[in-house]
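[stage:ingest] chain + small molecule (zinc ion)
[stage:ingest] validated
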Amino acid sequence: MAKKELGYVELEWTCPHCGYKNPGSTTVCTSCGAAQPDNVQFEQPAQENLVTDAAKIQRAKAGPDIHCPYCGARNPAGSATCSQCAGDLTEGAVRETGKAVGAHRPQAAPDIACPACGSLNPANAHRCAQCGSSLAAPKPAPAPTPTKSKAPIWIFAVIGLVILACVAFAVLSLRTEEVVGAVNDISWERTVSIEELQPVQRSAWYDEVPASAILGSCREQVRGTQDNPAPNSVEVCGTPYTVDEGSGFGQVVQDCHYEVYDDWCSYTVDEWQEVDKARANGRDLNPTWPQPQLLAGQRAGGREENYEIVFNADGRAYTYKTSDENIFRQCDLGSRWILNVNTFNAVVSIEPNN
Ligand SMILES: [Zn+2]
Ligand SMILES: [Zn+2]
Ligand SMILES: [Zn+2]
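[stage:predict] done
[stage:export] tokens:
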């Protein structure tokens, strides 16, 4: 993410002693004369105008101010001694910098009415032009606690019931009991898929389209983002915001990146597709693979095997399905097995009853 500078604005600070709002460049309260303490933060004015005065811009760029270790007064960066008490500033506290104070406010802010005489003053004025009273806004009301959106209670009830049902299902399917049964019936089925090269539609970035493909239409899409410009890129920037520079000024910046566009193309390519299945099945213990009759341009693809064993346990029939040929071959008719049966009467696994 690259930062783009739009300029500097003068911040302001509120005197903790008299409540007067002072311009950021002022280190001592214009109203009562108290120095700005190091724990009083700079704030955004109602309307932020980019500073054009060269001296102010230099002050803004100079770096964070230093508070005198003896009297606490704020001194511009680079000062060696305190302007108020002449103390050595080497050990002074450097103001914090880099904190985003809020979205840049370039829009004209509405005039404010003087709390004393009621006459209107520009939003950034600090003192009433009519009567000279401080225009500092009365202490802001405490931020309203975010009201939690109240989802109807029944939504929670439904979610609760669904979770409960899932847990119950899982518990019931996992709980098994053992039943001894004898093999009553067996069957098997094996399939081999028959595949043919057929054209299929795919899409990919232009440089990733296989050489053998027939190219379809392409359109530009964002392939990635980066900090630096590139051919075929577009700069995208976020909302400008103001960063406290610790000097009474704020730097207005924007986070920007480049969206790099590339061609996303559809193409047609030949891929092996299943067109048919060769099947073999039987009711014995010797399953065999089917021999597919392949036509020109066809090949044998994936194989599948499925075995089904029906047990009789105390007059009740249980069906066990598996793809394990080893187990199946041991299921001689009449042989006895321990069946692990879950609550839904499904046979989960079987083992010989020795
Ligand atoms: Zn004051
Ligand atoms: Zn001092
Ligand atoms: Zn007034």
